[in-house]
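Ticket #595: bound-state structure for 2-acetamido-2-deoxy-beta-D-glucopyranose.
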Amino acid sequence: MKFSTVLGALAALTTVSAVKVNPLPAPRNITWGNSGAIPVKWLELRTTESCRQQETLNRAWERAWQSIHTLRWVPAATEAPIPHFQPFPTGAGMTKRAASALYTVDVSVVDGDADLQHGVDESYTLEVTASAGSVKINAQTIWGAMHAFTTLQQLIISDGQGGLIIEQPVMIQDAPLYPHRGIMIDTGRNFISVPKILEQIDGMALSKMNVLHWHLDDAQSWPVQMRTYPEMTKDAYSAREQYSRSDILRIIAYARSQGVRIIPEVDMPGHAVSGWQQVNPEIVACSNSWWSNDVWEYHTAVEPNPGQLDIIYPGTYEVVKNVYSELSDIFTDNFFHVGADEIQPGCYNFSKYVTEWFIEDPSRTYNDLAQHWVDHAVPIFRSSGPNRRIMMWEDIALSAEAANNVPKDIVLQSWNNGLTNIANLTARGFDVVVSSSDFLYLDCGHGGFVTNDPRYDVMSDPSGAVTFNYGGNGGSWCAPYKTWQRIYDFDFTTNLTDAQKSHILGAEAPLWSEQVDDVTISSGFWPRAAALAELVWSGNRDKDGQKRTTDLTQRIINFREYLVANGVMATVLVPRYCAQHPHTCDLYYNQSVIT
Ligand SMILES: *[C@@H]1O[C@H](CO)[C@@H](O)[C@H](O)[C@H]1NC(C)=O
Ligand SMILES: *[C@@H]1O[C@H](CO)[C@@H](O)[C@H](O)[C@H]1NC(C)=O
Ligand SMILES: *[C@@H]1O[C@H](CO)[C@@H](O)[C@H](O)[C@H]1NC(C)=O
Ligand SMILES: *[C@@H]1O[C@H](CO)[C@@H](O)[C@H](O)[C@H]1NC(C)=O
Ligand SMILES: *[C@@H]1O[C@H](CO)[C@@H](O)[C@H](O)[C@H]1NC(C)=O
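RESOLUTION: The complex was predicted; output attached.
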């Protein structure tokens, strides 16, 4: 029972509401007593085992402690029982104090060498009692211990008089429901600077997300400097808007130091023209076509600019091999995403190789063409070693032009048709990462970006009940904007059998960047991604199986302020009034309307 361990604690918390701090994500099991807060003067890390990755652990603690003692956090939004509305407490110092203080954090790690890879044990326990005089953390791996730190740093708060306190005793047993908890950045449509990428990693670590899926390039630009083919970055937006090898290594190292894996994606064979065409124009089809042709039936791309790798031209695979193997050497994660979404048949009408291939044997279909790609490209993707796990978008197995036979060990990322596609893929035995666009696409709802669009030029039916405009999708194919409640309420295992559920590795929230750059990326992700972070860490239900979305309210409002305080530029969710007056901004007084 996935949700059985969750949150018996929240009920017990009410007696110490003045310093009641709800870390996000909510731990699977947190038990508070009420003997009173104790002061925290200085916390020194002590580890019982020495491990190869001791330095990583030390730095993680330094970062947590730095945040604790520089912020001296005052929870921005506390919980209040229903229906007695209470004003914001005037200071955490109002609770009684225990006599002793804490000076050390004792960490015990069982396997100090465990690498940060898919499925690594991230569990931990954390115990604070005045009598012990220290914080005790037990974890299987340093990655679990690091999660304990991000919990602890949210529990230690200002005493209102310049010092720090922690409510105690507190006992936490914690572990994620899913091993794959991520967000996706897209640096192909618009460039995202290294510092802004690091900022996202900070937000991820604080919310215990562990996968940054990095969609490196797209049709529009190729920002990655390559040794094999230096000419590829002629299609970067500028000399400034590129990632050098040392930039990439820095991002990987920074992420790893916070327990975050980087899964790179090179989208192939669709969404591929920039960069590739510089190596050899022959390997790219339809780059000079008009993308929509003004007649949708003849479109060559779903958005400008068009271009796909030529699946039949043999020279394509040599370039794919060289690009892939260079990037495989840089990105150390076992997972590598190779795209495979949105292959547009119309594009290949511009390829002499593909059209001849169809003429050669008129029984061939676009499904056979996709199969040709799988048969020729997948062996290349596997060549980087036995631990390599290939990831693709679900299109390769579910679109009208899907391949006939996709190897079952390829992880598929599901983005269409919500539960239907998740059920389909898991029933067929694929491991699935959930990114259903109706729930988890963070870029939706900002209108369309294509220009010269007459559909906006409509004066009748201004609400758009019938037409395209405002009340309709307003030009955003996946409108509306997905709010944190929409994300958190997503029961993505609905109606799945246990066997199907076991194929769900986790979920990712993508933020495609046609309309995103450094200015908007952080507010695009945060704090909404934190709602997903909790959904995949400890779920969206309490121990009785009741949805706890309303319970998340104060937690996520507080967490938003905490993100901003830690330098992650998260957007605001509610008028400040709602934070200060818990539940006054609820739509329903009835606390069980969300089921
Ligand atoms: C939660 O933790 C407490 C304290 O360690 C323990 O007594 C209780 O059994 C745990 N609850 C569950 C459901 O695991
Ligand atoms: C591609 O070309 C074929 C043969 O000319 C034609 O029947 C088909 O409609 C074209 N498809 C697209 C999508 O342009
Ligand atoms: C999955 O979807 C495909 C395409 O719609 C369909 O042909 C197939 O029967 C479905 N399989 C399952 C197990 O639902
Ligand atoms: C789940 O299955 C039940 C029973 O077959 C059905 O009534 C319900 O609509 C399904 N839920 C979804 C979200 O598909
Ligand atoms: C609250 O909402 C739930 C779910 O709609 C309903 O079952 C329950 O009767 C409601 N309670 C009250 C007191 O109206």
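RESOLUTION NOTES: The longest helix spans residues 54-71.
TICKET STATUS: resolved
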